[in-house]
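User: My advisor, Dr. K., asked me to get a structural model of this assembly before our group meeting. I'm new to this, so sorry if the format is off. These are the inputs:
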Amino acid sequence: MNEIANYFIAFFILAGAFLSMAATLGVIRLPDVYTRNHAASKAATLGVMSILFGTFLYFYFLEGHFNSRLILGIAFVFMTSPVAGHLISRAAYHTGVEMTDRSVHDALKNAKHMTASKDTE
Amino acid sequence: MRTHNNVILETMIRLVLFIIILFSVYIFFAGHYYPGGGFIGGLMTAGAIVLMLIAYDIKTVSIILPFNYRIMTGIGLLFAIGTSAGAIFFNVPFLTHAFGHIVLPVLGDISLHTATLFDLGVYLVVVGVTMTIIQTIGEDE
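Assistant: The format is fine. Below is the predicted structure of the whole assembly, which you can bring to the meeting.
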């Protein structure tokens, strides 16, 4: 039982560390705010969640301790991190941060002009 | 007055607020046997209220939570001094606390300690002071 648990724990923690590293590389490599935010909020969320889940499995199987705070932390990160990413992207868009040259379509352009004219009224 | 459309943030804060308040209460009560206590519990409660201030404006939050945080600080200090000075009436030195196991009908054997009431004072002072600072800075009129 503990041997199988060890493999699961190692898998989740290593997968989480790898995903966090992928998020970091994405933040370094990608061209503009929106794509960087995409990499950071998605990959880092899953990475943190898998590390927390691996920690939970470690304490549950090897120490016999059900740590509900880790479950709560997983749920909390899962709920809040995408919202944080959304708000950062939204703030960047509303303050007029340019998209990269390679992007072809801006579906929010009309809505942005509408809110801008509403603000000046 | 808010005019921007902030549905995602407001809905998420409505959900997350309960978790944060619950966790702060847990941290407060776990303080005797585990890491935690009045200070960090109070800070976390104040953080939840600040989250509400981010989503809504200061008037809405004062309608939802009609507390005067200065009075809350005072009540917390009264709790602290009351539990400390209560020891004098039992002929023991100031700040001596009492401890005992009590068997309640539903909850079973629970350990009650007057230091929890002292901690409640710390909790109220921390919430009161933090919210006073933030509301004083936040109100710009």
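One thing worth pointing out at the meeting: Helices of chain B lie at 7-30, 38-55, 58-64, 69-85, 115-138.

User: Perfect, thanks a lot.
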